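Backbone-to-sequence.
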């Protein structure tokens, strides 16, 4: 927890550290920077947290820290120098890949030099498009062990509040550094057929801490 607080404080102290070195160049850039119009953000993030997904390997230690990579792209409109709204999609590499579709709402504190910003991404993450078959499947819920079964992850709703700093690269582009909390709802279905069909449905919540870097074109 102390490390997380230190990272968050460092992000918001960053503008002061950069403001003096960019005092001249930043002002020149800000004079010709557009305040309204289209924006595109391509972001790469690392999501970290305890592994809880239903499917597991019998020999793997439980509750180990899992790291998953995420790539997202957002297209939207800036209504003024403070507010912007867009829609995004992405690809995330967990045990079973997720494909998030979301609404992006963001507020920039000031749109000139290095500036803090806040964003909220909310939507739905699609899960697997195909079932995966296992000869031996181990689960974190009843029935815990299933032979000759199909496993499918259906995804679920997502909520992703985010904050960070925006550093101007030119009149048309910004570099973004972000820290965020990710809530993800998951639904999995296990199916087994031995003359008679058996099915187990399971829902669980996944929580992750996210660190990212992005390029914003405007």
């Amino acid at each position: 927890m102390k490390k997380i607080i230190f990272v968050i404080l460092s992000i918001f102290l960053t503008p002061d550290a950069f403001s003096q070195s960019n005092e001249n160049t930043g002002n020149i850039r800000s004079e010709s920077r557009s305040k309204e119009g289209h924006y595109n953000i391509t972001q790469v993030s690392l999501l970290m947290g305890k592994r809880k997904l239903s499917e597991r390997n019998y020999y793997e230690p439980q509750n180990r820290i899992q790291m998953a990579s995420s790539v997202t792209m957002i297209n939207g409109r800036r209504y003024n120098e403070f507010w912007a709204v867009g829609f995004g999609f992405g690809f995330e590499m967990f045990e079973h890949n997720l494909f998030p579709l979301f609404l992006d709402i963001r507020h920039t504190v000031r749109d000139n030099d290095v500036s803090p910003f806040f964003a909220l991404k909310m939507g739905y993450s699609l899960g697997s498009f195909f079932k995966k078959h296992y000869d031996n499947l181990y689960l974190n819920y009843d029935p815990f062990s299933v032979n000759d079964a199909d496993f499918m992850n259906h995804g679920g709703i997502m909520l992703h509040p985010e904050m960070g700093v925006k550093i101007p690269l030119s009149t048309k582009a910004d570099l973004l550094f972000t820290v965020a909390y990710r809530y993800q709802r998951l639904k999995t279905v296990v199916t087994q057929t031995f003359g008679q069909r058996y099915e187990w449905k399971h829902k669980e919540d996944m929580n992750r801490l996210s660190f990212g870097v992005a390029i914003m074109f405007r």
